[in-house]
Amino acid sequence: MRQSTFSLIFIVFGTVLTTIFCLEWLNRETPFMAEALAQTRIVDLEYHKGLTEEEKRNILLYENASKSVVNIDTQSRVNTFFMERVAQGMGSGSVLDKQGHILTNFHVIAQATDVQVTLFNGNSYGAKLIGADPNNDMAVLKINAPEEELFPITLGNSERLRVGQKVYAIGCPFGLEQTLSTGIISSLNRSLPSQNKARTIKQIIQIDAAINPGNSGGPLLDSYGEVIGMNTAIATHSGDSAGVGFAIPVNTISRLLPQLIQYGKVSRPNLGIEQVMKTDGGLLITRVQEGGPAERAGLNSPRVITKEKRQGPFRYEYRTMDKTSAQIIIGINEHEVETADDLLSVVESFKPGDTVNLVILQDGKKYRVPVILGKDE
After folding, report:
1. Does one domain contain both 319 and 360?
2. Could you tell me if 282 and 366 lie in one domain?
3. Within this chain, do residues 85 and 144 fall inside the same structural domain, yes or no?
4. Which entry of 73, 133, 137, 222 is annotated as an active-site residue?
5. Among residues 94, 216, 241, 345, which one is catalytic?
6. Can 137 be counted among the known catalytic residues?
7. In this predicted structure, what is the pLDDT of residue 377?
8. Which DSSP category does 303 fall into?
9. Quick check: is 340 in a domain?
10. pLDDT of residue 11
């Protein structure tokens, strides 16, 4: 029993000594510990100094631009086999002016019977469609809101964009209003099919900023807070963001906005060529508008000639194209064209009444034909 008592006293005494030694060692600042503590204090001080310069720029950009971004809610009636139901949609938009004009995508409001626009302050207003251009997936709405609630967004320039430059997207993904996402320009000069599938939209900006359902129609901004595009589509298999988003360039938007606001539609120039066929040599004119600009300029579809063919006692008649009359478009002004969409894109850069020179290849000879553009009704 005595031996057990001494053993217990020794263990307790040893534990006390060990504890005192450890505390003394911990209280000593070795050079290594002093340096580590100093670094920790520096980091803490830096953290409490505030935000980084980049964070400050991001915050300032968001606070200035977010007031110009709106949430768009739509309702449309869908007929099913048994009944008519109401479908709901959502999107984003940008305030254009103090008169209440709102820019968004055409596909956001297509088929909608009711459109509600919610401003940054939570106030909602019914909107009416002022103008639309399905070919470029653009629409302009108008709301009757007090001027003090409207903060017009600043339209920039998309002509000199560079791959790698920073971009900011503000919108309402999944209905979460005033959401900011950042990224870079991943590529330029992409193409997207238009809403009516009749043509493609050119010079599309590809970005890696998170774009999700509900972002459509919202602004894509540069580091100065100016609009360089309108977020329009994503490439995805799941329906959610996969880091591949697309935006319509602001220069296209700026060019078409005045017509949409004033006339409700885009007045496009009319070349008077209704159909072409792609060949190895260019675009063969196969149908022109009767009495249209192209026909007045001397352009036409190839002549069709009837030929006779004999096979034994039988005689056959067949029709073929007179190749000498075939007119093939290989260019317009100084632009080469390879597809019908190339031709449309060049023509639409002009106005009705302008004269363009088509470069024609016919029977091995190349020549120019001036055509005065009409107005597409």
Report:
1. yes
2. yes
3. yes
4. 137
5. 216
6. yes
7. 67
8. P
9. yes
10. 40
Q: In angstroms, rounded to a whole number, what is the distance separating the alpha carbons of residues 133 and 122?
A: 29
Q: Is 114 part of any domain?
A: yes
Q: How far apart are CA 17 and CA 73, in angstroms?
A: 74
Q: Choose between 58 and 16: higher pLDDT.
A: 58
Q: Quick one: tokens of 46?
A: 């830096």
347 token code pair: 């023509």
Residue of 107, 186, 194, 222 marked catalytic: 107
Are residues 250 and 289 located together in one domain of the fold? Answer: no
Q: What mean pLDDT is predicted for residues 338-344?
A: 85
Task: Please state, in angstroms and as integers, the Cα–Cα distance from residue 237 to each residue in 129, 205, 242, 278, following that order.
Answer: 32, 20, 8, 32
Residue 116 in tokens: 């509600």
SS (H, E, C) 338-352: CCHHHHHHHHCCCCC
3-state class (DSSP) for residue 294? helix
Per residue in 130-153, pLDDT (tens digit) is: 999 998 999 999 999 999 999 999
Decide if 101 is catalytic.
no
Which of 261, 287, 306 represents a domain boundary (last residue)? 261
For the chain, the average pLDDT equals 84
Helix, strand, or coil here: 218? coil
Q: Which tokens go with 342?
A: 């190339």
pLDDT in tens, 301-332: 888 888 788 777 777 777 787 888 889 999 99
- Provide the residue range defining the domain that includes 250: 166-261
Q: Is residue 57 part of a domain?
A: no
Question: What tens digit of pLDDT does each residue of 215-225 get?
Answer: 999 999 999 99
> Could you give the 3-state DSSP secondary structure of residue 5?
helix
328 and 304 co-located in one domain? yes
Q: Would you state the structure tokens that stand for residue 157, as one six-digit string?
A: 């320039």
**Residue 109's domain is classified under what CATH number?**
2.40.10.10
How does residue 199 score in pLDDT terms, banded at 50, 70 and 90?
A: confident
Comparing 90 with 45, the larger pLDDT belongs to 90
**How many domains are there within the chain?**
4
Active site residue 4: no
Task: Specify the DSSP element, H or E, that contains 231.
Answer: strand 227-234
CA–CA separation, 370 and 267 (whole Å):
21
In the predicted model, is pLDDT for residue 46 greater than 70?
no
Q: Which two tokens stand for residue 326?
A: 């075939």
Six-digit token string for 63: 């606070």
